Amino acid sequence: MADFRRFAKPGSEWTGSDVEAYHITVSSQTRHKFFGVPHLPLPAHPTLVDFMNNEDSQNVSGHAKKLLYYLFIAVCYPFLGNELAVANFMAKLLETLGYDDHRRIIFICHSLPLTICGASLSAEMDISVIGDNEVLMLVRDNKESGDLAEPEVIAGAIAAYAANNKVRVASQNINLPPLASMTIPAIIMNAATNPVFYKIPVTAELSEAVARGTYPTTETRLPVPPMHRVHVHKNIPEVLACLEAFKQFVRN
Asked: Do residues 230 and 195 make contact, with C-beta atoms less than 8 angstroms apart?
């Protein structure tokens, strides 16, 4: 809303009110339309085939066994006291799916500069996929119940847009003009193994509005496909198929 009060706060403190204050709305979209494919493709990597089809870690290959162990720790991390368990599991899974192909790398615990209401703060992401010094995708672990991580990952995408344009303009090796808009793919991991997928469009108008603490005239709409809760022994193929299809949105 135009009359919302806007405050300088880091991305980790963003709430639904901040999303509304910058004219951003989230709406459901069918999987078919969101992913742009008639059927979600199952990965063919042997490790992932083992990972999908075997519940018993004693009867799988070494790499698949490690993935299952990462998954076990991610599901049980509150009891093991490992705050980065979900990030570690997702990093290994994304790596196996080829999200680090070409010149991309998978980066854990990434603090992105965020200029908001004239203040220089940050947006903390659990995972970033980076290529040529630009942020290509974000992952945020939702450690609480509800949609608390959704505003955080939106703040992260806005920070990534500004950071990417800074690289384009400031780097002597690149020397490119800033982009008027870019879409940042993002994933929120709910309850350790329940992913929600986002394609977050960020424009110069939205980025400048957040930096100045003003209301952008143009609405930003975020499509989100419906996702069911993922059970470890039941829906792993469904999740891997979504991740395989989602890879198309990560720029090379």
From this structure: yes
